[in-house]
Amino acid sequence: MKRLPGKRGEHHYEPQQVLYLIGNINYCYVHLSSGEVIMSCRTLKWFADQWPQFVRVHKKALINQSYVSFCKPAGNSTDTNYIVMADNTQLEIARRRVPAVLQLLEPLHAEN
């Protein structure tokens, strides 16, 4: 894994190494393709602004589209929609974001 130089205690990663990010108040857990999980003092909004190719699927989750295995849409409006990542993690899609996220990931949904 290639870490870019930064201040002491600060990590910089190439976006293509990141599977997804999970927010927890003012911190983030960065899940890397190597399986490593790094806690960052940055917010999801900060990462979303830095990496516009990532998709915000929930107020607590930001995903890298490249690592989406498939979408698991709900059968009806009361069920939860999920995205399954390359490491088999299921991430919930927020109810209000479902139409936009499914439209953006339509090619993946059509394949499966």
TrEMBL record:
HTH LytTR-type domain residues: 8-106
GO molecular function: DNA binding
SMART domains cross-referenced by the UniProt entry: LytTR (SM00850)
InterPro entries registered for this protein in UniProt: LytTR_DNA-bd_dom (IPR007492)
Record's protein name: LytTR family transcriptional regulator
